[in-house]
Write a structure and sequence with these properties.
disordered N terminus, eight-stranded mixed β-sheet, about 350 residues, disordered C terminus, about 10% strand, 12 helices
Length: about 350
């Protein structure tokens, strides 16, 4: 099976909870093998697949506003439009901005769906255009990346995808299994490191995460590695404890690489919608995050959640996870995102 698989799997073929699936980074075909020559779908196609749930809302609900040719823009119309937009998980602020734009420009006019589509496109791009940002890489020595997020958010899988991205580019990667209180996470990361050709540093279960981070960065320096990615705590017992732990990790890695960490990435589960944001905020504030990895944007999520994530966290979305495979991690592009979200929503190109 190719790594780009969005179909449903037979339950009997599903892996156990603590084991990676056959399409996960743990089982992905190494680059350069015969199977790796399979041509993946284009990025826009994968974005469309990942945004299928949100696009379906727009295709059906918004189009239903126009049961006949043209529709008068009145308060009833605007209220219906507001409810539809909120159901995409783009959040009340973005929905209200679109409604206000339609009201200001088109009130008391009879409009076609394409006019509303244009307003949605314009407002989404305005809100997302400043969120595009690449990774900060070290000028010399290893680039140190800390990764944090709520347990179950896809944090460990996202680390494997990042490692795959770097190793595919010919970079040497060292992983630090710093989420020491989750034995399953350490074991998964170890398996993925073996299959992706990355070195891993780990410690005993329950050991000091800062000690693991220090050893991982020290090994990266010693080995002349290009990148060191450190997994951090996936639990939020109290914000003060998490802040102390992450601050200690920052201090110990900075002793070895003065500008480290170069990035602190917060992984957020796109399928959790608005419910995930409040807990993730605790990690953002404690970790001093520099960017977001939006995971599980695989068709089951309401992709509009990217909008409130960027607004509420004040952080750029640096990557989106578009599937289960190791190569299904892409830099976030607002233009491609909006194009994939709106294309065909009203039977016309976006």
């Amino acid at each position: 099976m190719g790594i780009f698989n969005f179909g449903r799997k037979d339950p009997k073929d599903q892996p156990s909870k603590d084991q990676p699936s056959k399409d996960s980074p743990a089982a992905s075909t190494p680059a350069g093998s015969a199977d790796s020559a399979e041509k993946p779908r284009g990025l826009l196609d994968r974005l469309k697949a990942g945004l299928a749930k949100t696009a379906q809302v727009l295709r059906t609900d918004v189009r239903d506003l126009f049961k006949r040719e043209g529709r008068l823009v009145d308060e009833d119309f605007l209220e219906e439009l507001r409810g539809i937009l909120v159901r995409t998980d783009m959040g009340p602020a973005a929905a209200e901005a679109i409604v206000d734009d339609v009201r200001d420009r088109l009130r008391a006019r009879v409009v076609d769906p394409e006019v509303v589509l244009d307003s949605i496109r314009t407002q989404l791009l305005a809100r997302l255009r400043n969120t595009e940002a690449g990774l900060t890489m070290a000028v010399s020595g290893p680039t140190v990346i800390l990764v944090t997020g709520v347990n179950g958010s896809g944090k460990t899988t996202s680390i494997a995808k990042l490692a795959r991205m770097f190793t595919r580019d010919g970079k040497r990667v060292v992983l630090g299994a710093g989420d020491t209180f989750r034995a399953a996470a350490v074991e998964q990361l170890t398996m993925w490191a073996d299959r992706l050709g990355a070195e891993i540093v780990r410690g005993p279960q329950g050991s000091d995460p800062a000690s693991v981070a220090h050893k991982a960065v020290a090994r990266a320096v010693e080995a002349g590695a290009d990148v060191c990615i450190v997994d951090t705590a996936g639990r939020l017992q109290t914000q003060s404890n998490l802040m102390q732990e992450l601050s200690k990790i920052r201090r110990v890695v900075a002793k070895l690489v003065p500008e480290a960490p170069h990035e602190v990435l917060l992984v957020i589960d796109a399928t959790a919608g608005q419910n995930a944001l409040s807990q993730a905020k605790g990690f953002k504030e404690a970790a001093g995050c520099t960017g977001i990895v939006l995971s599980k944007l695989d068709g089951s999520a309401r992709g509009g959640v990217i909008v409130p994530v960027t607004e509420q966290f004040g952080l750029p979305v640096k990557f989106v996870g578009l599937g289960e495979g190791a190569d299904d991690l892409e830099p976030f592009s607002p233009e491609r995102f909006v194009a994939a979200l709106l294309e065909g929503a009203f039977g016309a190109e976006a």
